[in-house]
Amino acid sequence: MRFTLILIxxxxxxxAKCQSFQLNFDFSNxxxxxxxxxxxxxxxIELKKLLELPSTKALQKKLRTDSVTMRQALLSVxxxxxxxxxxxxxxxxxxxxxxxxxxxFLTEIKEREDSLRFEVEKALxxxxxxxxxxxxxxxxxxxxxxxxxxxxxxxxxxxxxQQYKNDFIGIRETCKHELFHNIQRLYRDHFSYSDxxxxxxxxxxxxxxxxxxxxxxxxxxxxxxxxRKVTDPNALYVREARNQAAVxxxxxxxxxxxxxxxxxxxxxFPDQTxxxxxxxxxxxWNWNNPGYYAGYVMVKALCAExxxxxxxxxxxxxxxxxxxxxxxxxxxxxxxxxxxxTEEFETIVNELREELKKxxxxx
Length: 363
Description:
The protein is α/β, with parallel strands linked by helices. It has 17 helices and 4 strands.
């Protein structure tokens, strides 16, 4: 079993020239899609141009479809007799209905491109290791049902523009969060230990390690792009995302108990564990992202206690050390950091750390 999920974060290709964070934007799909849905007389040449864009092909891959089906979905925008219910997932009718609104939003992003680049680079550039060049392209799409995704080993992040409610700040914070995942992977391949544990018939510890990696990666990305610090009342996408996760604020104790119990069960009874559902419960929007929340609380506590430089240190360590340090912090200052894992959870984390010592050290 391979301990790798298709995640919103993926590794970037690197060059070892100089420390640099190079952020570029690709507007081609969004612009061409708007041109198509607002032009009933658009011809086959325009449609072919849209379908042949690399960014459009990426959307096809995300939707697990082909150019023939996507072509029909696009044609049905102007000819309702061609429409089929299965085309709803493309979202082109919604794009057409909001074309003027989306056009203004796309223009705003183009006009503020330099500002967006500056804000994202300012937040992330100091995390890029010295001697490393990090080229990034943010590609704006119209269509589909995802707010953002990456594919394989691409150095491209795709943003579903129609999901953002004209919220420029939402675009900015999403870029920070998702691109920080790629920076995390510049330091070490955290998941290689999960695979090695599984190969050594330590499946339970492999499950545990896999989930601890996500706990750190998502929690630290939430800390770097902290939606709680956004106060602009017009940031509608941010407000919706924050409201979705707000339930965790009043069930913090339960979140840490849930993670403790679920990961203990997975570690001790791996044959009765399903990785997919386990991951979804802890790190899925439909479950209010309790894993994101717990990871954020942990990073915030450790940085509050030891300074923000501690985050840079954790980027270079295995996530089990991050979790171990948080456990020790809650034991040392329980009144200050009351949200603690169970003793059983502490035991399996310590056991995991011992198992990792038996594996070849990562370079």
